C-alpha cells in the first residue's frame, strides 16, 4: 500500500505547442497507456523507487515474476475489473495515435523550461510494441496501479488507487496530475461513485496536490491490517 | 466505506455443546454463507443500520435495486474475484450441512447466558433456499462485504473488507469475530498477503477488538477521496 505523488504541479492541459512557437521551452510529449506483461521490469523498478521514497523498503518483497503472475495472468479478466496499471511514457518527439479497444492511449505534452537530465534513461527505455515506429526515444516516467472497490453507501463500484508514482527527475511538471486525472476520468466515464487512495500524513506536498485535485482528506479513518504469520495462522482456524 | 464491529467478544471456537449438557446456557447456532441476490433486502437494511451506527446516514444513498445490480450481476465473476458478501445467519436449532462448490457454509454455535430479545426478528427472517428444511427459524444477524485488493510491495492480492456488521442485539457474543475470521481464513487459504479495512478513530471498542484479532492499526495513513460532482467533472477533462 502506498501513494506517493509529485508535489503540486502547474496545470498542463494546454494544447500541444510546437517547439518553434515557444522558443523559451521545449515540449515533453506524454502518453498514458495500459501496461502489459512486457512492462513488468519497469513496473518493478518503479515500485521499488516508491518504497524508497516512502521509507518503507522493509515492506518491499515484490519480484518481477510475482508481479507478472498476479498483474498479468494467462486469462486476464476484462480491463478495469481487476488490478490495472497505467504506464506514463515520455518522449521528445510526438507519439503516434494508436488504437486499443479497451483504452485508447492518452496523448498530451508539457512544456519544459529546462532540459531534463534523466540519470536512469537507459534502464527505463519503454518496451512498448510500437517504439520502433517512433524511434527508441520513449522513456517510462511513472505509473498508477488501481482496481475496483465498492461503496455500500452508494451501492456503486469505484476505483482504489494503490500506487501513483512519477520518477524524481520528472516531478513538478504536472505528470502526477495527468496520471490521477486519467484514473478519475475513467471512473467518471464508467459511472463509478468514488476514487480513493491513501497518503502518509507527513507527505504534505502530496496532500496539498491531492486537495488541489479536488480530493477530500478524511481525518478520522485508520487502516487496520492482518498480514504475515498472523494472517497465515487463520488458515488453520477451525470454523 | 465503513467498518463497524462488535466490541471485544469472548472466543467462541468451542465445539457445539448440546443444551442439556449445559443447563446454564442455550446454544445459538450460526451459519456463515455466501449471500445471493435473494438476500439483498436484508443486506440493504443491514447497511442502513451500519450507517446509523457510524453517524454517517448523510452518505447513505444505496437502494436495494442498485445493490442487486452491482453485487449480483447477471453474469457474475468467479467467487472472491470481485465484490463478495458473507451473510451471518442464526438459529435456535442446528443448521444442516449443505454443499456449495465455492464456499461450503461455516457452521458453529455460541452459548447464550440469556435469551436474546430480537425486536426485528420478523423483518430479518432469512431468505435462504433451505429454510424450509430447518423450519423458518433462521434469522439474519450480520454480514461482511469484501473484495480483492493488491499490494505492490508483496506482489500479492489480498482482501479489503468494506463493511463488517452485527446487529445490535447480537453483539458481544463472538459473532463479529466469526465474520472477520471467515474472511481472514479465506484469504490465508488462497495464499493472499493481507486483509485490510478501516475503522473510525473514535470507535475504541472496535479498535480493541481488531487488535485482539491480531490486526495492526496503521496510524500514519489518511484516506483521500474524489466523489460526487468533483469526480463527475473529470469525465469531461480533455486528456
Automatic annotation (TrEMBL), chains A, B:
Domain (N-acetyltransferase) ranges: 93-239
Protein name, per record: Probable acetyltransferase NATA1-like
Keywords of the record: Acyltransferase, Transferase
Species whose genome carries this gene: Sesamum indicum (Oriental sesame)
Endoplasmic reticulum keyword on record: no
InterPro entries the record matches: Acyl_CoA_acyltransferase, Diverse_Substrate_AcTransf, GNAT_dom
Chain segments carrying region Disordered: 1-22
Designated gene of the protein: LOC105166602
Alphabetized PROSITE patterns for the sequence: GNAT (PS51186)
Composition-biased stretches (Pro residues): 1-13
GO molecular function, one term: N-acetyltransferase activity
Domain of life assignment: Eukaryota
